[in-house]
Amino acid sequence: MESRFVEIEKGLGPEGRIAVVRFDRGDDINALSQQAMRELRDVPREFEDDLTTSVVILAGSAKAFSAGFDLKDPEAWQGTPLPIGARIHRQRLGPRMCKAWQDMDQVTIAAIEGHCIGGGAALVVALDFRFCGKGAHFRIPEIELGMNMSWGSIPRLLALTGPARTKQAVMLASDRISAAEALDWRLVEKVVEDGQALAAAVAFAERIARQPPIPVRMTKLSVNRLAHALDDLAAHMDADQNVLTGLTEDYKEGTSAFREKRRPRFKGR
Fold first, then answer.
1. What is the mean pLDDT of the segment spanning 210-220?
2. Which helix (H) or strand (E) holds 197?
3. What's the domain range around 153?
4. Is this structure's pTM higher than 0.85?
5. How many domains does the chain have?
């Protein structure tokens, strides 16, 4: 498949063991359209048989990692409503993208500048490490749009930040999580000057790349198996819940309020 929004550069760093993946739609918004998600989902396939690369860095644009799901994507909002089965299938693209990155043999690092919202946050918590500029911020707006937080994100957030912070981040959907708060919450590993997230990620990647590759891969696999052993129990109904909440009046109110730039009024139905 032709790649319009994603570029892969391999052979960097010590022994050529570092790769950088750049996701950039050229608009400083970097929303996740269906096409963008397919391209990002397919990136891990480029590394399945790659025994040279030890570390893969994922970076957004210089001003934005991602604004999350593309609400203006014509492919996502077709004129004729899809049957339930087709809607569930389409909703599984985001989870498959995130799971593909989590399951990579290589160590993965997110370099985050600017906003990292919704699906963008869901993607970065599927990676092993996160570095961000001090002006970066995170937000998980799904609940305020009348839908659930899906894509397998809740178990991953829970593993990083704990129960209370996960509930706070997801339930208080309007709240921005600043870079400093993200560091305090253990959502990111390091905060650097704006514009330096990629450089910091590369410096960290170089340290990993100098280690023997085989035990590095073994360590990642063991830690991930333990940390995410119960993820499927918590997230297996994500897509179904997303379709279900999409049928509610609150979803219509939440998305209408977003488009009209007003506060929503939810009724629980």
1. 97
2. helix 197-209
3. 6-194+233-260
4. yes
5. 1
